[in-house]
Write a structure and sequence with these properties.
Shape: globular
Strand content: over 45%
Largest sheet: 7 strands, mixed
Number of strands: 10
CATH architecture of the largest domain: Alpha-Beta Complex
Radius of gyration: 19 Å
CATH class of the largest domain: Alpha Beta
Helix content: 10-25%
Length: about 180
């Protein structure tokens, strides 16, 4: 049985900055009742798990203010207006790791928080890496430690909870599944 979608009766921006917008929607439910719904709007983001070789990946360590800690993760970031998903993935890879990929393999697309955010993550595996000679300076809020890790070590970091970034966890587990399918 098809249920009609919620209908937006009005929408207003509560807060906005360069990275996100918080809006409040008045919506009519299929039952006819109305309710207020808050939505954090960020757009699309990308994540790239870069492989130096079949058994070595590059991770970046950075301080995450909201988490209040340093985290190991793959290069990630937002998609700029008018930028293709693949171009954003390559840009973030260069900015955060200092590498450029000759091959970007799409892994999956998912909603990072389907109940309150509209953010859609696009994940890639990167291979055939070369050092980027035109690496831009990081944003003022970013400072990276870049280090290669054995893939098995990264899997263990996911299992033990040392890696807590959902985009990195999903990419690592997808890469492991693909490696198993290929007989690695």
């Amino acid at each position: 049985m098809a249920v009609p979608p919620w209908r937006i009766r009005s929408s207003r921006t509560i807060y906005q900055n360069a990275w996100l917008r918080l809006r409040e929607d008045l919506v009519e439910l299929p039952s006819g009742h109305t309710t207020i719904y808050g939505v954090v709007s960020t757009g699309s983001c990308v994540g790239v798990l870069p492989f130096l070789d079949p058994d070595t990946v590059v991770l970046v360590r950075q301080y995450r203010y909201v988490a209040g800690r340093y985290t190991w993760e793959m290069p990630t970031g937002g998609v700029m207006p008018g930028e293709s998903i693949q171009a954003a993935a390559q840009r973030e890879l260069v900015e955060e790791s200092g590498y450029r990929a000759d091959r970007l393999e799409p892994v999956c697309v998912y909603h990072t928080s389907k109940s309150v955010m509209d953010e859609t993550a696009h994940l890639f595996l990167a291979s055939d890496l070369t050092r980027a000679e035109d690496r831009p300076e990081p944003d003022v809020t970013e400072s990276f430690q870049v280090r290669p890790h054995g893939f098995q070590e990264v899997l263990a970091m996911v299992d033990t909870g040392e890696i807590v970034d959902s985009m990195t966890i999903i990419a690592v587990l997808q890469a492991d599944r693909r490696r198993a399918d290929r007989g690695r």
